[in-house]
Design brief:
Blueprint: E1 4-8, H1 23-34, E2 41-43, E3 48-55, E4 62-69, H2 77-84, H3 87-90, E5 93-103, E6 107-111, H4 119-128, E7 134-141, H5 157-162, H6 170-190, H7 192-199
Length: 201
């Protein structure tokens, strides 16, 4: 049986633990905490930390593997090849990642999209030879009072994403991390179409 897999992208190590690029790891960490998941253990073959949670009750209960690649972002495909290389595995894969095209505080689900220049997604798409997997995009960019995204200039994107969230952003970050975990639980219980109808507002 192939477990559902939720993979949180980011860079390993304390240096990057609070960076914008590691927001995917923050989401799966919170899932483990909220749902009393198993302690993180190292899967040497996948070069990843993994945990497991259970969602739902009775016959509808699902066991989900949570994964944090311990490679740097641009090598995320090494981990995904272990967990979801077969077509059946891709159907049960959700990748959680940062997105500079969305403002901080917003999340969006997507399926079958390109990488949008995201190095982690590029690595995963190359490894799977497919774009057909679910992503949860978590916005990290500042925005205007009217909600318009203020993306960093192209030559400053790298420094922006590996930089930490500002203290003024932490309240919004905490709220969106909670919403992302709620959305992933809803996805596991109700499927992608219903989830997108609710959370892609």
């Amino acid at each position: 049986m192939i477990n559902n897999v939720i993979m949180g992208l980011g860079n390993p190590g304390l240096e990057y633990a609070k960076s914008r690029h590691s927001v995917g790891r923050m989401v799966v960490d919170l899932l483990v905490d909220k749902l009393n998941g198993k302690e993180w253990t190292l899967n040497k073959k996948a070069k990843s930390l993994e945990s497991r949670i259970k969602i739902g009750k009775g016959k509808k209960q699902k066991e989900i593997s949570l994964v944090k690649p311990e490679t740097f972002m641009n090598k995320s495909g090494l981990a995904v090849a272990i967990y979801a290389s077969a077509p059946a595995g891709r159907k049960k894969l959700v990748v959680v990642h940062d997105d500079v095209d969305l403002p901080l505080g917003k999340i969006r689900f997507a399926f079958g999209r390109g990488s949008g220049g995201h190095r982690g997604l590029e690595s995963i798409i190359k490894s799977l030879k497919s774009k057909d997997f679910v992503r949860l995009r978590v916005g990290i960019s500042p925005s205007t009072p009217t909600g318009k995204v203020k993306k960093p200039a192209s030559d400053k994107v790298v420094d922006f994403v590996i930089g930490n969230f500002r203290s003024a952003e932490e309240k919004i970050l905490k709220k969106v991390l909670a919403e992302a975990t709620e959305a992933l639980v809803y996805l596991a219980e109700n499927g992608l179409d219903k989830t997108m109808n609710i959370y892609n507002r």
